[in-house]
Amino acid sequence: MLPAHCDIEIGWFHSEEYHMNTKLTLRFRSNGEPYLEYEDFCPGISAGNSMGGTYERPLPDGFPKGWTLEEFAEFRPRYHDAILRNEKLKKFFEENQ
Question: Domain limits at 77?
């Protein structure tokens, strides 16, 4: 498992419908447990303001053991292409099988 300080930025998703951009990052708790962090950014109601938030989603028990990069890309289809192009993520999966 990668050390806790080795978060991996996966990529960005833009929603035209909600006028929002979301950054997805694979992060690690101090005990090494991985989770996904979503950071939403969207315009506020007046000039210069922005809204959004940060939230976490757990990953299935045992992740990443038994997962391939392709399976992870299918798990988060909005980020499919970004996941497959991400060299740090590819190395993470190769080293943790």
Answer: 8-95
Give me the pLDDT at residue 20, please.
85
Residues of the chain short of pLDDT 70, as ranges, are 1-5, 44-50
CATH number at residue 64: 3.10.450
Structure confidence by residue, pLDDT tens digits, 48-60: 656 778 999 999 9
Query: Global pTM?
Result: 0.83
Q: Is residue 1 part of a domain?
A: no
Q: Where are the alpha helices (DSSP H) in 22-68?
A: none
DSSP codes, 26-91: EEE-TTS-EEEEEEEEEE-SSTT-EEEEEEEEE--TTTTTT--HHHHHHHSGGGHHHHHH-HHHHH
Number of domains, the chain: 1
